[in-house]
TrEMBL record:
Residues 216-229 have a biased composition (Low complexity). The chain crosses the membrane at residues 37-58, 70-90, 102-119, 125-144, 156-179, 191-210, 250-269, 289-308, 315-333, 339-363, 375-398, 404-424. The keyword Signal does not apply. It comes from Agromyces agglutinans. The keyword NADP does not apply. This is MFS transporter. It comes from the Bacteria.
Amino acid sequence: MDDTTRSTAPAPTASPAPTASPVAVPTRAARLPWPSLLVLGGAAFTMVTAEMLPTAVLPQMSAGLRVSEAETGLLVSIWAAIVVVGSIPLMRLTRRADRRAVIAWSLVALAASSALTAVAPAYEFVVGARVFGALAVGLLWATTNAHTADLVPDDALARAVAVVLGGATLGTVLGTPIASLVADAVGWRTVFAGLAVLGLVAALLVATVVRRSTGGAADEAPDASGAAPTAGPRATRGAQRPHLGPRMRAMIAVLGLVALLLVGHYGVYTFVTRLVEVPAAGVPGGVGAMLLAFGIASAVGVGLAGRFGARTGRALLVSAIGTGVAVAALAVVDTHPVVGVIVVVAWGVASGALPPLAQTLVLRLAGPEGRGLASALIPVVFNLGIAIGAAAAAGLVAGVGVSAVPLAGAAVIGASVVGLALAVRMPDRTSN
């Protein structure tokens, strides 16, 4: 598959039967491999639920392990750190393996981690099990990203990514609340045991339903001109180091700027309950209802990203601008509950579109031969953005107060928007 970020050239993977390219493009875009994408979306649901599960069962797990809630919450931070450290090395170790097999076995490893957590006799054993699970999920995210891109033509990439990341969004919107309810009813260990079963089911479905990719497992980047290597994947795999051509430089720039954007967004989201507690007091259901509205709006944003992701760079800019405006508007949500609801919903829609659009743009810029590296970098960048944003916002709240968080976050997002406006045009300028 050629790099089709140049919108004037039709994708070369069209079926040989149609001869008129204007007709082939929309037909091809409509033929998503739905069974494969839905199963991969289910795997994403399992991954996100596993990552956030300690926060859903925080009081029960803390009491059961006889540790503080802060120590239990630290399990999420440890998870993110392991994903950052382990994703790229594991992706390189498995780069020659069939991606479908890597996804399936990584889900088995995640299931084993969850089962070990369910029977862990002490906190230290839970930490070890979580480290094992985080390594599996780091490899899962990287491999799932690359495999999704290999399953579809470029003009359908945004829609495919949106389907898979829709599962991740549901993990936040549904998986965590359901886990909390189950923990209240039958205990936190049963929740982790259920997650182990879910992981095994997902692994079986991946092995039996998901199609093998046609793009191979090579992970070389395009050459210095931005074109893919002319030799076949088997001939070139491991024979050369990636070259930073124009598109790869643009991809790295976009990744860095998306990380900066996520610092601003997640820094503010860390204190969302504090920021919306005043308007939430006038809303039925209070803060919980506001968070549910944000989650549903985020799911809508993911859907919009798939629908309007053909011009990925422009759509990403619009989403980033909308996120920045909504974050800044959090400074005035105290004026009326209706204002609070509108701002939270707008924030959810805009920020929900960010991950699929950013991922789609990065994979397109990397091209088929650079997707292994790009897919490994995506979870690293996202988890770094979350960790740095949360830590920076915590420092700001401790020093100044929570009221300073929205405008500071909006300023960081604004800086990333300026950079993104330049970065998404880099390949076009260098090719002229």
